[in-house]
Amino acid sequence: MNLKKSEALLQRARQIIPGGVNSPVRAFRGVGGTPPFIVRGDGSHIFDADGNSYIDYVGSWGPLLLGHRHPAVMEALRAVLEIGTSFGAPTEREIQLAEMIREAIPSMEMIRLVNSGTEATMSALRLARGFTGRTLTIKLEGCYHGHVDSLLVKAGSGVATLGIPDTAGVPAAFADSTIALPFNSVAALEEAFEKHGNHIAAVIVEPVAGNMGCIPPAPGYLEAMRELTAKHGALLIFDEVMTGFRVAHGGAQQLYAIKPDLTTIGKVIGGGLPIGAYGGRADIMSHIAPVGPVYQAGTLSGNPLAVAAGIAMLTELKKNPAIYAELEKKTAALCASAPAGITLNRVGSMFTFFFTGAAVTDYTTAKRSDTARFGRFFHHMLERGVYLAPSQFEAAFLSAAHTEEDIRKTAAAAAEFFAAG
Ligand code: KE4
Fold first, then answer.
1. Which segments of 113-220 does DSSP mark as H helices, in order?
2. Count of Cβ atoms closer than 10 Å to residue 293 Cβ
């Protein structure tokens, strides 16, 4: 396939931007080759500088649940442009978005808007430490919560893709305050609480892991986590940056009927604009400045453009609850059958083809995947106009804009690869 313009753009980009990208996973290091430079998106498709078009299963890594350039989102953005871009002062829209989030996720009794998922998890963690007066946190191996210093311990996503053994630049003291446990192991949680119980400020978890590839929680796992944190006075933080408004309107906490103490969200609530949010029990959130002693701030927090896009997204989702059943049906059709040697994990419209025949239930089993064969599969699909997440350790996403024809084409391209052995 012709990627000449993207190749030239990558050379130029590498002169001034590390790896030529503003986020590592975009560099295709996990699969090799040249990342197409994208010039526009529309519905379920993206288009690159060389005129190639792709059915997009990345969707900006999750935000574009309704596809690219949804009319309601575009209209909302155009309206804001008539009044400005940022004020650094409170606006009514921020209240409206927060109220819509709380209506969908009632555990978020109070909410603070920020500018990314990383800011959300970093702030939630600081709040948990400030509220409990404790320092230790538990994270799960292979989960990724943004590039928060203390959480870049056995992290997933780009860290897993690049095989970076715990990021340079993070002082040991930060890493030492984090206990990394295997995902889906109740025994590991029980042991950690046995040892450190009353020093643990919080457990932070992706309730459905997406950053080591898609891995659902084992039956009873989240329930055990909820019980143990409550018993030992630690907070349970659901990092729903990826799963919020994705796996259900109310996120994974609605799907699995678990009430965390704090939740972090992002992606979908900004419709592709920079945004994040954290929130939860009012008694905890009242510790956040200016009301309480835990400081957190942001020049562009609650930005009018991001908030307007978010309101448009959540309004569409509220108006059309059938979207979730539709996403479920379409993704189930796409993931109907996993060929021999492939393990397919899916929750709603997030899914991963693991190139291993064994069950994938945690980071250890995910890492047994044949990443070289995944790389060949990725390029086979890219050459046939299907843009998957460029890493075995990422989830792919289907949007409401994907058509039956998109799914037929995708399934046919995949079948061709697997038929060739
Ligand atoms: P951001 O700071 O990238 O907005 O969000 C960090 C984050 C936090 N929590 C979860 C569960 C996340 O999935 C993420 C970010 N997700 C990755 C995709 N695996 C972002 C893609 C990238 O790093 O470029």
1. 117-132, 157-162, 172-176, 186-196
2. 9
253 near 207, Cβ under 8 Å?
yes
Q: Among the atoms of ligand 1, which is closest to the Cα of residue 266? A: 4
* Sheet containing 386-387, strands listed edge to edge, beginning at the edge strand earlier in sequence: 38-42, 45-48, 53-56, 386-387
Integer angstrom CA distances of residue 356 from 107, 333, 360? 37, 21, 8
Q: pLDDT per residue over 146-173, tens digit each?
A: 999 999 887 888 887 887 766 688 888 8
Distance between CA atoms of residues 415 and 352, nearest Å: 16
Geometric angle at alpha carbon 56, from 55 and 57, rounded to 5°? 120
Name the residue with the closest Cα to ligand 1, atom 20.
61
Query: Which residue ranges have their beta carbon within 6 Å of ligand 1?
Result: 23, 25, 61, 116-118, 121, 144-146, 157-158, 206, 210-211, 239, 241-242, 266, 276, 394
Q: Other CB atoms closer than 10 Å to residue 332's CB: what's the count?
A: 14
**In 173-267, beta strands by DSSP E:** 178-181, 200-205, 235-239, 262-266
Instruction: Spell out the domains of the chain, with CATH numbers in brackets.
Output: 4-69+321-419 (3.90.1150.10), 71-319 (3.40.640.10)
pLDDT tens digits, 211-236: 999 999 999 999 999 999 999 999 99
